[in-house]
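step=encode ok
step=design start
structure_in=
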């Protein structure tokens, strides 16, 4: 056939993101669209990519990301696009780039000033204006964080909103949805989201439902009380009618690994009753979050300043220790927590070491060390928890209602984002799924893996113009060598880009060529 193309991808095995079997075909691209899939014999005078021996897939969609601010620091979005990601959804776990008001705004300004980022917006509308003026190598959509909404209206107070305050929260949510948010997220283990009652979440999710958005939730407990926490999420979905996404579904802690079948049954039963609930998961058995998440929830009340005061108060510190010792943390428990990053140079030597290791060297009780470190670091310590089962992880990834998400912000090998020892999922999530769970210890086919990374999340988000390879849709395309694709990031040496991703196109522009970033910033801000 003869057509005019800007670019032709020849001879690749097209795995189109629908779950259908791959087939060898050519793809013709005109401007930012796929205009033909089939056999192209009469080649026009344009760029040609020979994809023989490679898989040609839709660009991967990271449905659970935390690059809300970092993408403005590093527009090239290096760790994501080198892992084949062409679209990421930010604003998860109740934490988003908007709205930012009062102490929350000042806290974010102070926190990101060290990265050279000037936060000059407060509302959702202002943020999207800033976002549209910025550049990025990949596409990006945003959720609004329930935690942000609550903090802007109630601060970090542990109480229910009154009628007027709930109305103000609803207004913030509507403003975000009308500005282009894909939905609302919650982080029900973090302040101030942990102070919200179920009824508050139901009322807000009714508004999300009005806008046909999604509700992505980091549920209230992923360990001892996971059944109750998951049942709450199901109830919120049922009562509000909202399209729900359970974030990074897991069974936390060895004593809870045996709950895996109960968890699946809860979700299966809900779905059989017509409740629209799905999940995402990253392909690692370690989680990453803030160290202070292990503290009793009353310690957070009032925000970071008040939290630090409590840590420095001898009487309150004794209360914290007493409550946490009652929980019975063992030396084994402290050995599962690795310090990922701190801000003070004098504490950098702790990065990459477990709390048990550090406490042994310092000859101090682990909990005393934790409280001291949090105080010194203004409660900003990132950690990695090794708390999950490999067998359960493989089961979860293979569940039909689970898609792939990194649960991580972007990072870079250069500049200010090359710090600490972050969770390797920020660099290698999607490559690892293919390398480990398709090639080495296969739990599903390459077609099913690609579907979980592309077509499935696109369907969940309502992205009708990407996520699958089809004529007329946006030319977001990832081309990789299935035999060599691998994540290079590890827990001890995380700052490494994935290998085997040959080429990546974003909206028709070749951004990764032969594994090298071309400096192209052709990404778009996606809106609901």
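sequence_out=
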């Amino acid at each position: 056939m003869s057509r005019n193309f800007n670019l032709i991808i020849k001879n690749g095995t097209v795995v189109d993101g629908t779950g259908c079997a791959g087939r060898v075909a050519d793809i013709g691209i005109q401007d930012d669209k796929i205009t033909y899939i089939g056999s192209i014999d009469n080649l026009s005078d344009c760029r040609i990519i020979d994809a023989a021996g490679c898989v040609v897939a839709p660009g991967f969609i990271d449905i659970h990301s935390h690059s809300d601010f970092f993408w403005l620091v590093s527009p090239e979005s290096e760790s994501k696009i080198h892992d084949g990601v062409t679209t990421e959804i930010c604003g998860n776990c109740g934490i988003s780039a908007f709205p930012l008001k009062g102490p929350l705004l000042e806290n974010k300004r102070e926190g990101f000033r060290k990265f050279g980022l000037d936060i000059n917006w407060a509302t959702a509308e202002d943020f999207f204006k800033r976002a549209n003026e910025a550049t990025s190598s990949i596409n990006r959509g945003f959720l609004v964080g329930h935690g942000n909404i609550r903090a802007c209206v109630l601060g970090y107070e542990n109480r229910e909103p009154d009628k007027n305050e709930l109305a103000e929260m609803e207004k913030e949510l509507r403003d975000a949805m009308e500005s282009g948010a894909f939905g609302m997220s919650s982080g029900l283990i973090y302040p101030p989201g942990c102070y919200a009652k179920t009824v508050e979440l139901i009322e807000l999710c009714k508004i999300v439902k009005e806008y046909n958005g999604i509700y992505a939730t980091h549920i209230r407990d992923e360990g001892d009380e996971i059944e109750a926490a998951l049942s709450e999420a199901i109830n919120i979905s049922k009562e509000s009618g909202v399209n729900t996404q359970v974030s990074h579904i897991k069974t936390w802690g060895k004593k809870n690994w045996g709950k895996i079948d109960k968890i699946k049954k809860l979700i299966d039963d809900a779905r059989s009753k017509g409740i629209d609930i799905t999940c995402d998961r990253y392909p690692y058995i370690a989680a990453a979050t803030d160290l202070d998440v292990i503290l009793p929830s009353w310690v957070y009340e009032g925000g970071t300043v008040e939290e630090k005061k409590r840590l420095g108060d001898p009487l309150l510190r004794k209360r914290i220790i007493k409550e946490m010792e009652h929980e019975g943390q063992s030396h084994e428990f402290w050995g599962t927590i690795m310090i990922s990053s701190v801000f003070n140079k004098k504490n950098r030597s702790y990065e990459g070491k477990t709390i048990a290791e550090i406490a042994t060297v310092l000859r101090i009780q682990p909990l005393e060390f934790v409280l001291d470190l949090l105080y010194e670091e203004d409660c900003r310590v990132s950690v990695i928890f090794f708390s999950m089962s490999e067998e359960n992880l493989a089961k979860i990834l293979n569940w039909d209602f689970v898609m792939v998400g990194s649960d991580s912000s972007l990072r870079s090998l250069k500049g200010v984002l090359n710090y600490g020892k972050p969770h390797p999922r920020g660099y290698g999530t999607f490559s690892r799924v293919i390398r480990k769970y398709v090639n080495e210890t296969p739990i599903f086919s390459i077609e099913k893996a690609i579907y979980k990374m592309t077509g499935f999340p696109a369907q969940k988000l309502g992205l009708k113009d990407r996520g699958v390879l089809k004529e007329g849709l946006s030319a977001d395309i990832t081309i990789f060598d299935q035999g060599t694709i691998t994540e290079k990031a590890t827990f001890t040496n995380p700052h490494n880009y994935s290998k085997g991703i040959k080429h990546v196109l974003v909206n028709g522009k070749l951004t990764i060529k032969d594994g090298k970033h071309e400096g192209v910033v052709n990404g778009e801000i996606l809106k609901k």
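step=design ok
step=annotate ok -> The chain has a mean pLDDT of 96.
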